[in-house]
Specification:
33% of the residues lie in helices and 22% in strands. With 295 residues, the chain is of the alpha/beta class. A hairpin with a 7-residue loop joins strand 10 and strand 11. This is DUF58 domain-containing protein.
Length: 295
Amino acid sequence: MSIRTHDYAALLDQVRSLRWPARRRVAGNLPGAHRARLRGSTGEFSEYRAYRQGDDPRRLDWRLLARSDRAYVRLADDHALLPTLLLVDASASMAFPEGTDAGTRHAKWRTACALAVGLAAVAHAAGDPVGLAIAGSDGVRTLPPRSRRGVVHELARALDAVAPAGSGALAPLLARVPASSRLVLISDYLGDDADALRQAAGAHAARGGDVHALHVVAAEELAPPRDLALAVDPEDPRLRRPFDAAARTAYVARFAEWRAGLARAWREVGATYALVATDEPPARAVRRIVRGDAA
């Protein structure tokens, strides 16, 4: 059974004016909105360089040559497309919290879906191709990056057709992603493949790719209810333990320490890291992410 997340219309309207520049020059040759690694003569003027044999004579600055009797070519910051692939964790822990309250039920999954749709819309608005990979109990479902009209709504429908369950591995997929792509990983990083995923993402960053690790955390995980008597592992319900006041205090401290270590580990492999709690409005989280404001 799928989980209908919500109507994305308000979110899409709120992120309409956002722009998401690449963190580093893009190794692409299709014209787009991001600064390319290779400089040419078709973009915005950047600087001069002394003429070298083999340079295109059309790039010579003839006025400067006439004044100084020295040959220089004009360099420009060309711009390129940045394919964006959103990788979304649909494992069982992303269904937290369970229960009957429609306002909080499956809040982690609903937050992950909203982040994916909002960021896809921002990337697509710049002309960038956007794609999706969802890892859950049925394996990994992928929609390759596309820039055609309506692709954001296709991604939203794909997400709405999924109910988080079981476990799925995203790490093997990363080896096949072109280095010129932007990777956006949306997960709670509680799965068994979290370390492998980070290592694979780090390898992508080392090849020159853009990597963003978005950490979705339920508000109840940050501040567990004080009347909670039993803690249950969402990915293995057989694992249960009492949760009294002392256990709650110890958990809060350990969870904070773990999050800090996770953030450091992601940044050490060249990724940006941003924590998104389920009680943060999705549009505000998207705005914070594209501006590079971590939390």
